[in-house]
């Protein structure tokens, strides 16, 4: 039966004719989008495995797991999404309903179930889109811009899409109401539209008119969306499915944790074979991004969730993750005609794609490209923005370097855009190719390359945190034995004063629990997290490869599940656990809060809870969002007896402290300081303690509290690590004077190692106390101390022994206190009020006496004879000529001069009763001109900027075997009247003078384990013997 009339036939014909160009424009726009996305670099890691990816796609679509992070928006969007997907059948049915008002889909269209479903879809679509319209208006930028997540979004596009969806939903309702009014139907299946039908006349033509309105609204949508292929608010309805399927993590996780490897041509870049002329070192042009990145840019819905959570945006910085993605999207599609025509420019900006037979630009072909596309092709991806569209960069450097890599944008994005990976890729190009980066980073890169730590401190100081402990800390010396955990202390835990207290607390807790652990001591080097986040991938891989080789040696012969590492720094946790596997280093890494929580659950640590100060907890980004560790620290706070008061932004929405993304080493010049913003939020909880589980967070929050306390706010508030809270609680339950811990014979570092009992020399030496102080000068003669035999940590290979110096001529002992020199300006060389983490005041020298003990002749210590160090083989990256070196070169060493007693490290204490020799009895220790050190580190050219003038290295005396030259900054902190020797670990030349000779810390040749059979980590292709960052020549 049919109700086709000439009028409905005419209306149907008009609809069909109009829809033809609409569909053509829409599909042509979709094809241009596909072609543009294909301009990106290949990436073959996104397709497989299929089933897990399909499962994740289904979960995110059906359960709306990403959208539901904002619940009110989540349910409304779910209604609109389902209305669009299933309601498309109702929209297409309009073609038939215009011709024949009684039209319905065959088989299903006339069933009760289908009719009831359409009723729900119509109502749900209208309710959902109405809620979204209200939410958008309540968050409109007519409020202060920084408080609106829609600031910078296109409103006409949003309004257009919302209007079309609303019309579509109303179209479904009114078509059904008109049918019910005309033909009747089930009251249940029309539970809502039958009330609307009461106001409508019974007329078949009315059905065709409503169907035509519904159809034409869709036709307009196709026309506009096909014309504007950058309309993400519309196109995400299609592209989001692909973007979710092709997300980086096939297990459903977001693109956090490990940074994406640097890729070129669809493969991970092998740096020993890399050529900057042909390989993409990061992203310097839009076509250097992968096709998945271009799909990311296309899919952005402009919802602004990332913007609302960004610490940079919320503190007045120019970075908005949303606007960054939109800028890249608009640039991609504006430049696409030029790229699709075959255009390409070299690094100098010269045309190399569209050229004639002589290699000159082909003007005829270039003229066929739209002028706007040619202009866009000439713009740098990263560059200053001055308002000149022809020369301005797409992304301003201030935008690029404001990012803290906290991952809040990635965590909140409903369509799985990978903001952090794209920012790192742009930073890589700026650092490795352009050598354009904030001046503060030059110091960071230099310190990491030369010293192996961000502070630029000496490797010999990596064990100073053990001072004051009442037990010995085992140090790896070639035998790991049945030790369960390698305790990775980290640079902050070794050098920064506040972090050292955390390190000691963790060590004490492990000792109390009887956990067998060892530390590497001077064998540690920075994991390279800051270098990688700053874009210096080459330096990161150098550091990472060195650490992997060291750790593999420690765990030689152990299966992966037994290669256990405990860390206190979430940045180390993330680097070793998530990023080192990219280079072949696979280990079981645990954060200290996880391990301590496990020990508490297993009753190996028994905290005694008592009423304590209210505490709030700050989630470190690299512990929380990047690695999903939220509960363990909170459980420990509860076990310690504290009442936890959460900040408004906590858990996965926690606000960054401002230290990530290498921002720890950079100043903030714009807006409010991020750490102060976070501190203000913590102080608003009115708690007395701010707990955290990251040394960087603790530094930033402590500085923020100090700043507020200077203004009279937050008096009595303390920033503390969770481990320190637990230690206090556990110690309350221990009997006084009783220490519970490992029964194993400990190693050589710690309180007892610094207080070794020896037979007194003529001038008796005092043993070290729990808190070592400067030794009186009376205990040491004015003559140069005797050269210690091989001792200390006895590291293999290229590692230097901390604190060792050649013997120097005697200096007359002063009879009065000698004032200590002011320490050299070190660390980060920051201006003004900026504090250098880990800096300590130098202790004044004690008065010296004229009493001199009897000394052995120098010949009794033949091993102290200095041996020239072999020049290391040319190391680093072995790259081709075009690569630039990020950071400045170290100045060559000047000619050596005789070392003086005043050049002994200030930080070392005498721990045994030495019997030094007079200088005249040690002729072999006379200084000789030192050879210029071999070129070490990365061996790259000096294109990078370095703040300030480069200081030349202070001349040094000849090295002893495995001895490290003292650093000038360290030397200058030493009182001239206190010539304390480097801290020995039972030198072999003094064994006869001790009651209980200490076991040699250097393993014999027979005890040395062979190198691991595991495959060598990929990445750098460094030659054997090459100098590694922070280590000395062999």
UniProtKB/TrEMBL annotation:
<feature type="compositionally biased region" description="Low complexity">
    <location>
        <begin position="751"/>
        <end position="771"/>
    </location>
</feature>
<feature type="compositionally biased region" description="Low complexity">
    <location>
        <begin position="888"/>
        <end position="935"/>
    </location>
</feature>
<feature type="compositionally biased region" description="Low complexity">
    <location>
        <begin position="779"/>
        <end position="797"/>
    </location>
</feature>
<keyword id="KW-0408">Iron</keyword>
<dbReference type="InterPro" id="IPR009051">
    <property type="entry name" value="Helical_ferredxn"/>
</dbReference>
<dbReference type="GO" id="GO:0016491">
    <property type="term" value="F:oxidoreductase activity"/>
</dbReference>
<keyword id="KW-0479">Metal-binding</keyword>
<feature type="transmembrane region" description="Helical">
    <location>
        <begin position="114"/>
        <end position="135"/>
    </location>
</feature>
<dbReference type="Pfam" id="PF02754">
    <property type="entry name" value="CCG"/>
</dbReference>
<dbReference type="InterPro" id="IPR051460">
    <property type="entry name" value="HdrC_iron-sulfur_subunit"/>
</dbReference>
<dbReference type="GO" id="GO:0051539">
    <property type="term" value="F:4 iron, 4 sulfur cluster binding"/>
</dbReference>
<feature type="compositionally biased region" description="Low complexity">
    <location>
        <begin position="835"/>
        <end position="881"/>
    </location>
</feature>
<protein>
    <recommendedName>
        <fullName>4Fe-4S ferredoxin-type domain-containing protein</fullName>
    </recommendedName>
</protein>
<feature type="transmembrane region" description="Helical">
    <location>
        <begin position="6"/>
        <end position="28"/>
    </location>
</feature>
<keyword id="KW-1133">Transmembrane helix</keyword>
<feature type="compositionally biased region" description="Low complexity">
    <location>
        <begin position="968"/>
        <end position="980"/>
    </location>
</feature>
<feature type="compositionally biased region" description="Low complexity">
    <location>
        <begin position="949"/>
        <end position="960"/>
    </location>
</feature>
<dbReference type="GO" id="GO:0046872">
    <property type="term" value="F:metal ion binding"/>
</dbReference>
<dbReference type="Pfam" id="PF13237">
    <property type="entry name" value="Fer4_10"/>
</dbReference>
<dbReference type="GO" id="GO:0005886">
    <property type="term" value="C:plasma membrane"/>
</dbReference>
<keyword id="KW-0411">Iron-sulfur</keyword>
<dbReference type="InterPro" id="IPR017900">
    <property type="entry name" value="4Fe4S_Fe_S_CS"/>
</dbReference>
<feature type="domain" description="4Fe-4S ferredoxin-type">
    <location>
        <begin position="391"/>
        <end position="423"/>
    </location>
</feature>
<feature type="transmembrane region" description="Helical">
    <location>
        <begin position="75"/>
        <end position="94"/>
    </location>
</feature>
<keyword id="KW-0004">4Fe-4S</keyword>
<keyword id="KW-0560">Oxidoreductase</keyword>
<feature type="domain" description="4Fe-4S ferredoxin-type">
    <location>
        <begin position="291"/>
        <end position="321"/>
    </location>
</feature>
<dbReference type="InterPro" id="IPR004017">
    <property type="entry name" value="Cys_rich_dom"/>
</dbReference>
<keyword id="KW-0472">Membrane</keyword>
<feature type="compositionally biased region" description="Low complexity">
    <location>
        <begin position="804"/>
        <end position="827"/>
    </location>
</feature>
<feature type="region of interest" description="Disordered">
    <location>
        <begin position="736"/>
        <end position="1034"/>
    </location>
</feature>
<feature type="transmembrane region" description="Helical">
    <location>
        <begin position="156"/>
        <end position="178"/>
    </location>
</feature>
<dbReference type="InterPro" id="IPR017896">
    <property type="entry name" value="4Fe4S_Fe-S-bd"/>
</dbReference>
<keyword id="KW-0812">Transmembrane</keyword>
């Amino acid at each position: 039966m049919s109700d086709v009339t000439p009028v409905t036939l005419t209306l149907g014909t008009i609809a069909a004719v109009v829809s033809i160009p609409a569909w053509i424009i829409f599909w042509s726009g979709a094809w241009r989008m596909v072609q543009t996305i294909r301009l990106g670099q290949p990436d073959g890691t996104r397709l497989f495995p299929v089933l897990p990816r399909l499962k994740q796609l289904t979960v995110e679509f059906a359960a709306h797991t990403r959208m539901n992070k904002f619940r009110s928006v989540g349910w409304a969007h779910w209604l609109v999404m389902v209305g669009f997907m299933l309601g498309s059948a109702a929209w297409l049915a309009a073609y038939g309903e215009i011709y024949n008002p009684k039209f319905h889909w065959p088989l299903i269209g006339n069933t009760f179930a289908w009719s009831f479903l359409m009723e729900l879809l119509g109502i749900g679509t209208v309710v959902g889109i109405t809620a979204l319209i209200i939410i958008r208006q309540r968050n409109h930028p007519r409020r202060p811009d920084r408080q609106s997540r829609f600031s910078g979004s296109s409103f006409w596009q949003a309004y257009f899409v919302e209007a079309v969806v609303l019309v579509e939903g109303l179209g479904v309702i009114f078509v059904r109401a008109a049918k019910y009014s005309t033909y009747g139907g089930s009251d249940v299946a029309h539970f809502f539209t039958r009330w609307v039908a009461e106001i409508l006349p019974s007329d078949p033509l009315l059905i065709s008119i409503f169907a035509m309105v519904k159809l034409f609204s869709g036709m307009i949508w196709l026309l506009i969306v096909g014309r504007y292929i950058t309309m993400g608010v519309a196109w995400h309805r299609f592209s989001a499915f692909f973007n979710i399927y092709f997300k980086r993590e096939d297990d459903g996780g977001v693109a956090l944790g490990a940074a994406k490897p640097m890729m070129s041509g669809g493969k991970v870049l092998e740096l020993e074979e890399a050529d900057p002329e042909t390989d993409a070192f990061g992203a310097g042009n839009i076509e250097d991004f992968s096709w998945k990145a271009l799909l990311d840019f296309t899919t952005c819905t402009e919802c602004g969730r990332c913007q609302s959570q960004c610490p940079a945006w919320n503190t007045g910085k120019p970075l908005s993750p949303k606007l960054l993605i939109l800028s890249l999207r608009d640039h991609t599609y504006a430049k696409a005609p030029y790229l699709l025509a075959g255009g390409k420019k070299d690094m100098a900006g010269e045309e190399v794609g569209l050229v004639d037979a002589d290699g000159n630009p082909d003007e005829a072909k270039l003229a066929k490209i739209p002028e706007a596309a040619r202009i866009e092709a000439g713009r740098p991806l990263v560059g200053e923005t001055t308002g000149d569209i022809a020369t301005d960069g797409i992304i301003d450097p201030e935008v690029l370097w404001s990012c803290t890599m906290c991952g809040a944008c990635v965590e909140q994005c409903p369509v799985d855009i990978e903001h952090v990976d794209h920012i790192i890729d742009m930073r890589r190009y700026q650092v490795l190719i352009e050598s354009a980066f904030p001046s503060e980073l030059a110091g960071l890169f230099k310190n990491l390359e030369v010293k192996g730590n961000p502070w630029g401190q000496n490797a010999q100081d990596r064990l100073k945190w053990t001072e004051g402990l009442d037990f010995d800390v085992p140090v790896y010396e070639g035998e790991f034995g049945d030790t369960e955990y390698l305790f990775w202390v980290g640079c902050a835990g070794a050098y920064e004063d506040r972090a050292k207290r955390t390190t000691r607390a963790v060590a004490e807790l492990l000792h109390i629990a009887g956990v067998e652990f060892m530390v590497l001591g001077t064998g540690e080097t920075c994991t390279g997290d800051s270098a990688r986040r700053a874009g210096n991938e080459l330096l990161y891989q150098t550091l990472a490869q060195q650490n992997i080789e060291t750790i593999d040696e420690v765990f030689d012969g152990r299966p992966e599940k037994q290669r256990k590492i405990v860390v206190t720094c979430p940045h180390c946790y993330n680097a070793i656990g998530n990023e080192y596997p990219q280079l072949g280093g696979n280990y079981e890494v645990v954060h200290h809060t996880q391990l301590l929580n496990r020990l508490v659950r297993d009753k190996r640590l028994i905290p005694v809870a008592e009423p304590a100060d209210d505490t709030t907890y700050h989630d470190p980004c690299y512990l929380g969002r990047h690695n999903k560790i939220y509960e363990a620290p909170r459980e420990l706070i509860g076990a310690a007896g504290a009442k936890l008061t959460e900040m408004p932004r906590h858990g996965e929405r926690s606000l960054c402290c401002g230290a990530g993304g290498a921002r720890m080493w950079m100043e903030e010049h714009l807006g409010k300081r991020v750490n102060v913003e976070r501190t203000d939020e913590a102080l608003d909880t009115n708690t007395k303690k701010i707990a955290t589980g990251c040394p960087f967070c603790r530094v930033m929050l402590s500085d923020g509290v100090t700043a507020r306390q200077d203004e009279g706010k937050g008096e009595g508030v303390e920033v503390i690590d969770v481990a320190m809270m637990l230690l206090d609680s556990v110690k309350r339950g221990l009997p006084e004077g009783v220490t519970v811990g490992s029964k194993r014979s400990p190693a050589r570092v710690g309180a007892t190692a610094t207080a070794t009992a020896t037979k007194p020399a003529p001038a008796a030496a005092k043993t070290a106390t729990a808190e070592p102080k400067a030794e009186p000068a009376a205990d040491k003669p004015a003559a140069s101390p005797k050269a210690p035999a091989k001792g200390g940590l006895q590291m293999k290979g290229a590692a230097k022994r901390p604190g060792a110096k050649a013997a120097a001529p005697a200096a007359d002992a002063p009879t009065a206190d000698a004032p200590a020199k002011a320490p050299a300006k070190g660390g980060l060389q920051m201006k003004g009020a900026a504090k250098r983490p880990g800096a300590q005041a130098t202790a004044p020298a004690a008065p010296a006496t004229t009493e001199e003990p009897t000394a052995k002749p120098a010949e009794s210590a033949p091993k102290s004879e200095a041996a020239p160090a072999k020049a290391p083989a040319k190391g680093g990256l072995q790259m081709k000529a075009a690569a630039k070196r990020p950071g400045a070169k170290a100045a060559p060493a000047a000619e050596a001069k005789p070392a003086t007693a005043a050049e002994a490290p200030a930080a070392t204490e005498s721990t045994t009763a030495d019997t030094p020799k007079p200088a005249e009895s040690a002729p072999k220790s006379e200084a000789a001109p030192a050879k210029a050190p071999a070129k070490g580190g990365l061996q790259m050219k000096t294109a990078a900027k370095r703040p300030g003038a480069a200081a030349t290295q202070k001349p040094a005396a000849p090295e002893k075997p495995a001895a490290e030259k003292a650093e000038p900054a360290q030397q200058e902190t030493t009182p001239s009247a206190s010539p304390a020797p480097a801290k020995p670990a039972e030198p072999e030349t003094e064994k006869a003078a001790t009651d209980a000779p200490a076991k040699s810390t250097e393993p014999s040749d027979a005890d040395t384990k062979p190198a691991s059979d595991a495959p060598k980590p990929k990445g750098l292709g460094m030659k054997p013997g090459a100098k590694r960052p922070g280590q000395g020549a062999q």
